[in-house]
Amino acid sequence: MAENDLHQAPATEKEIGPDGGAAATTGAQLNGANTTQRYDYGGNPLYHAHSGPDARLPAFGGEFQPGLYKPVEHRKFANPAPLGLSAFALTTFVLSLINVNARNITEPNIALSLAFGYGGLVQLLAGMWEMAVGNTFGATALSSYGGFWISYAIVLTPGFNVLGEYTSAADKASVLGFFLTGWFIFTFLLLLCTLRSTVMFFLLFLTLDMAFLMLACGEFAGSNGAAAASKKLAQAGGGFGLLAAFLAWYNAFAGIADSSNSFFIVPVFHFPWSEKGREARAKTARETV
After folding, report:
1. Pairing of strands 55-56, 7-8
2. What is the average per-residue pLDDT within 74-89?
């Protein structure tokens, strides 16, 4: 892992005292005067989840961690994130090539084997192992996308006849649009959780979210009879899907490669407003004084 420097988690907003330092209790002065009431997000306990003196690592896509996290001591499991990312990447890559009509291929049958076995089952297992190492975000994302690939493969498998009750092509396109829109919303929620992580991790979810949006809009356009627009939107979704696949591989490589097995480590580019970015700016300011 390229970023293995531990640092102390900063005091949260509610823990900042009136003198700018960290308050010992609730942010009020010791004599009880000038008590400052700060917004605590409706009492959400996760607002304080990463406060305190414990040393934590900065956000890292290779561990599928979008924020500060505790390093796993005496790890009994290997890091499951690269496995889940790789399973997602390959399955997305193949289906996206079909969506952009590469070599004039339009039928997605070849992607079904990957969707069931690799992007589905293996990614779902990686999500379960993320639970074992205590990564809630990774467990939620990888398990959910594993479920997505299995369910999407079921939809596309003729033997399951999932769309059999929809007699018209317009109805079939509409329900597929509903399906993809739900995944667009879910991915958008995960995207919000990466805004304080790294550029490469954020771009993975951004491009994936755009892929779901384009594909959903393509289905709705097809339902409305706009065949040409539907094809262009599906191709746009395939293009964003290819970007998401390569970004997933990039983050997977970042989680696998270290000084013991690779001659180079890929950068992950922390956002300037992330904890790592603020720490780097503070270090630069100290060095220039």
Report:
1. antiparallel
2. 88
